[in-house]
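Open question from group meeting: does this chain pack into something compact, or does most of it stay loose? Before anyone orders reagents, we agreed to write out a predicted structure and look at it together. Recording both the input and the output here so the notebook holds the full record.
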Amino acid sequence: MKWRPLIWMLALELGVAGCAGSAGSSAVPPYPTPDAGQVALGREIYLRSCASCHGTNGEGAPNWATSGPDGLELAPPHDDSGHTWHHSDQVLHETIRDGMADPLRPGSPLRMPAFEDVLSVDEIQAVITYFRSLWSEEHRLWQWGETQEQQ
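Structure tokens returned:
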């Protein structure tokens, strides 16, 4: 199962590379410069709502790649060492808003709580903007492409 995200990423990259020269393809808009105020607001919200599970600097729970005593995976990092940057803004927004159960265990309890009644749409977007500040330029650009593909 650990290979599935890598296989999907490779398939996506090959598909994008194969379509790069095709007629009618549209270029991805340039990556916007993150707004420093949004990054600061996102960090403030993150520290208040997310850091207790995902770590103060987005590093994830200690031993995050292992399962906890309940068998559920621990909170992953949101920095470059994690996989958050693999997901579009839409997927990140929906995950924060709706929470997340273990996708490999149907009917399992939410391993991440829903924040729909806690954070506004703008606050969720500010958290996503903060996540981007934790990523390398390469990962920010890759995630921007994913986001544009979903629009």
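Observations to bring back to the group:
The beta strands are 100-101, 110-112.
Residues 12 and 95 are 21 Å apart (CA to CA).
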